[in-house]
Design goal:
alpha+beta; 12 strands
Length: 226
């Protein structure tokens, strides 16, 4: 029994040594007119078990953060041993007045046009349809990486083709093709949302971040105003 227990402990120790942590994504909603979108993430670092949380407020048409709209509680000694959801709740309270001022409604989470299931790796090329509006979408993700290990950095952008039910189409480039993010190994599209007005799209992007204990997952969003 003692040998069995030691073997199990060794397996768990080894498996933990090669796995990073995965953040939880939170959809905090659009404004009524779809001009703004807010999202967040939270979790616990795998190495030292410190909670963290982030909230970002995006101006959809500019695909940029609103001034003063970034809230963050990074992992630190003050969050050691704290659950990430509790850290996020405290951060949400801190951001509440800003969200209210900008008309963010947590009940306006939009509709999912595309959802990547957890069993499959995020794809780089997608096609899907909004059956309510008769609109078809084709989305291609293009990546560029440099370096390896701790020195890795990578950039990406989306090419989004929108075809209306009358057959007319428009192509959009979304993101920053030349912006290399330090420590990021790659990207994947996890979900695509459309707001209630049908004018705003939010692409939920998974970032795979390199760390000594293995890849961790963080989230970001790219937005497009149709």
């Amino acid at each position: 029994m003692r040998k069995t227990a030691l073997a199990i402990a060794l397996i768990l120790s080894l498996s933990g040594a090669f796995a990073g942590d995965v953040a939880n994504f939170v959809n905090l909603g659009f404004s009524a007119d779809g001009s703004r979108f807010v999202f967040g993430q939270y979790g616990v670092t795998d190495a030292d078990f410190r909670g963290y949380a982030d909230i970002w407020c995006v101006e959809v048409a500019k695909n940029a953060f609103l001034q003063g709209g970034v809230f963050s509680t990074p992992p630190s000694s003050a969050t050691a041993g704290r659950d990430g959801s509790g850290v996020f709740a405290a951060l949400q309270n801190k951001a509440a007045s800003f969200l209210a001022k900008n008309g963010i409604d947590s009940s306006r989470t939009g509709r999912s046009l595309y959802v990547q299931t957890g069993e499959n790796a995020p794809g780089s090329a997608l096609s899907f349809r909004d059956f309510e509006r008769g609109t078809a979408y084709a989305v291609a993700l293009t990546e560029r990486s440099e370096g390896s290990g701790a020195a890795v950095r990578s950039a990406f952008y989306l090419t989004v083709t929108v075809t209306s039910k009358d057959g007319s189409s428009a192509k959009h480039t979304v993101g920053l093709p030349g912006y290399l993010r330090e420590g990021v190994k790659g990207y994947g599209i996890r979900r695509v949302l459309i707001d209630d007005t049908g004018k705003s799209l939010a692409f939920i992007i998974e970032k795979r971040v390199s760390s000594p204990r293995g890849d961790s997952v963080r989230f970001m969003v790219e937005t497009l105003r149709l």
